[in-house]
Design brief:
Length: 662
């Protein structure tokens, strides 16, 4: 045996070598036979490699179908460019095909904000690119309809969810109709799919024809021209402007979106309809937020928590390696950020797991052969929203606001952090856990400022202390996104003053405990409403705070967000007022340069640009006078510096500003 092959054998997870192949859901005819099945009830097609883990949607849906006593198989990353043999290899399912592009929209997965093809794919073995098509949900469905035109196809996952209605597609730079129209699929499940899927399966098991399943909540479908809208006495119906009207007028499209977002976030929403050519798109209202028992059921299914053994020679799957030893505590986000798709897909209301379910997963994780005692993340879409909900649910049931914390923290929101503290401490006390880190982004506006003033008993101070002293792996991620109040208002993000308040507490706790930890703030350039002057102020303010930025990105328009509607139409969908957006490649590059003001190549351009827009004083603050020479421009300490603590004068100034803002 060669030295190389010996090494491969050593690093291959022991669990995969020892487990029988039947521990995974089948992916081949041979694996189906090993389970003793002659026929499959459902076949899932996925744009991701098959990882049998609760963080991967295909595994969750597959295990849920299995739990219903049905025969289920998965075809991961099929070849769509040959004779379609991958789509044929398992034959025809008895009930339907399920199709998903994967854990990400396929276009976000494949292309950068500059529409450049990415060189890797985190959801493919070895990180290799090229294993999924553009618009994967559409391509896979069209392939299936060529091979099995009479078998129903159900779309799911984030790509289908966010493209269920007329939407702007950044990569083709056009307004597209519902993905149902483009793909030819028979049904679409949007959002978290467990509740609608279970109802769908129960009805099919009872013998209800697929064509009659028109009143399942959280599903969408197209009605033929001669079909009537199904009756449901519990639902009111709102007719949106047609796809053709949206094509003809950008303001109409923007106006449409306001209704779509509001109905998506309601607890008791209206059914939506939209004319698409000669047919009618019908979007049934969503289910109520999952109960603790319902979400526990998904996480407690018998996952192996491992990639399928078929990938062992192709290399690690980067997305899996990143979350392999992590715990997801909840779903949903009530932040409502205008550029984010989390609430559009997972919902505004928080669905939290029970502490028992979380600890059961910690036990399972601790038993993995290569677990070394470190949990990489215990969090969720936002790190600190676990168990949070309205104090009076009846008020939440009437609410149409897309955010519970913007422009102000809702008086009805319970921001108590004590349940999270309890989980953190229970996990940390586990005999096989050395450290449990929180890597999910923290909402610091729930920890300082108004949230604490309105609810002083929310254990925020205790939470910050516990977090910083026990759950930071050297760096803590937070996302102020910008420093300009005008831009932050459009983003639905809090004032940057709260960042300063949180940073002060973070630094104080580190100093008190002799820790050397850093904050990692995330920022976005070219967001709708952001101009060059805003980026210049961002650069100056972050420089003054001692940051040399690393975690930055250019705004990428994704379907079903306020910011994307603004990018395409030039109007805010709630006010219909015009809003500037950097759209050309040069405009975007100009804004991005301000992140890297400290680079030699950018300084002259920044100085000349700011001088040209009458901001010479700021140019001097940022990059100095041309006559001073570059060596006299003082650079801030970067994130890699061992420690950065503001001067006493700056700390005093920050405290005075905090008192004034209070």
């Amino acid at each position: 045996m060669s030295e190389t092959s010996a090494k491969k054998k050593v690093i291959r997870p022991v669990e995969q070598r020892m487990r029988p192949i039947t521990d995974w859901l089948p992916t081949t005819k041979k694996e189906v036979k090993k389970r003793g099945w002659e026929e499959l009830d459902v076949i899932l097609i996925s744009g991701d490699a098959y990882v049998d883990h609760p963080a991967f949607g295909t595994a969750v849906i597959g295990r849920l179908i299995e739990s219903m006593g049905l025969n289920i198989a998965i075809i991961p990353q099929p070849n769509w460019q040959d004779d379609l043999r991958d789509f044929k290899k398992l034959g025809k399912p008895r009930l339907f095909f399920g199709v998903t592009a994967g854990c990400m929209d396929s276009m976000v997965n494949k292309y950068t904000a500059n529409r450049r093809l990415r060189s890797n794919d985190a959801y493919t073995p070895g990180g290799e690119s090229g294993f999924r098509p553009d618009y994967a949900s559409v391509t896979y469905t069209q392939c299936l309809k060529k091979v099995y035109p009479d078998v129903p196809v159900v779309l799911g996952g984030i790509e289908a969810s966010l493209r269920r209605v007329t939407h702007y597609d950044y990569w083709s730079d056009q307004l597209k109709p519902s993905i149902l129209e483009e793909s030819g699929a028979d049904m679409l499940v949007y959002g978290m799919g467990e509740q609608p899927l279970l109802m769908l399966l129960r009805l099919l098991k009872k013998g209800v024809p697929f064509s009659s399943l028109k009143t399942i909540p959280q599903t969408a479908f197209l009605l033929a021209e001669d079909e009537e809208l199904p009756k449901n006495k519990q639902w009111d119906t709102l007719s949106l402007a047609s796809h053709e009207d949206c094509l003809g007028d950008k303001k109409t499209f923007a106006r449409n979106f306001k209704h779509i977002e509001q109905e998506s976030n309601k607890q008791f929403a209206r059914r939506l309809t939209q004319r698409v050519g000669a047919r009618e798109l019908v979007i049934n209202p969503p289910f109520q937020t999952m109960t603790e028992q319902e979400i526990d059921r998904s996480f407690d299914l018998p996952y192996t928590r491992l990639p399928h053994p078929k990938y062992k020679k192709r290399g690690a799957i980067p997305a899996y390696e990143m979350i392999k030893f992590s715990i997801n505590m909840h779903r949903g986000c009530f932040g409502g950020c205008s550029f984010c798709t989390i609430s559009a897909h997972q919902g505004k209301m928080i669905a939290s797991r029970s502490k028992g379910s979380i600890m059961k997963e910690v036990d399972a994780l601790a038993e993995m052969e290569d677990f070394k005692g470190y949990i990489s993340d215990i969090g969720g879409p936002s790190g600190n929203m676990y168990k949070m909900k309205g104090k009076n649910q009846a008020i939440c049931d009437r609410c149409v606001s897309p955010s519970c914390i913007f422009p102000n923290v809702c008086y009805n929101l319970d921001t108590d952090h004590s349940d999270m503290l309890d989980v953190y401490r229970k996990v940390s006390a586990h005999p096989k856990v050395k450290k449990a880190f929180v890597s999910s982004g923290i909402r610091y506006d729930l920890l300082v400022g108004e949230a604490v003033e309105k609810q002083p008993d929310n254990h925020a101070e205790e939470y910050i202390e516990q977090l910083v002293t026990h759950h930071v792996s050297g760096r803590l991620k937070i996302a102020p996104e910008h420093t300009s109040d005008d831009v932050l208002k459009i983003m639905r993000k809090p004032s940057f003053d709260l960042f300063h308040k949180f940073k002060e507490r973070f630094d104080d706790i580190n100093e008190k405990n002799g820790l050397n930890q850093q904050l990692i703030p995330y920022f976005i350039s070219s967001h709708p409403g952001c101009e060059l002057k805003d980026m210049a102020h961002l650069a100056a303010e972050t420089k003054d705070a001692g940051f040399q930025l690393e975690q930055v990105q250019d705004f990428t328009p994704t379907p079903m967000t306020v910011a994307t509607v603004m990018y395409y139409t030039g109007f805010h969908p709630y006010t219909l007022k015009p809003a500037y957006t950097a759209k050309t490649k040069s405009q975007k590059l100009e804004q991005h340069k301000f992140f890297f003001w400290y680079k030699q190549d950018n300084r002259k351009w920044i100085r000349d640009t700011l001088k040209g827009i009458g901001m010479l004083k700021l140019a001097r603050t940022l990059v100095g006078d041309e006559s001073e020479g570059q060596e006299q421009v003082k650079k801030p300490k970067s994130f890699h510096h061992k420690k950065h603590k503001p001067s006493k004068r700056k700390r005093a100034h920050s405290k005075q500003r905090s008192k004034r803002s209070s």
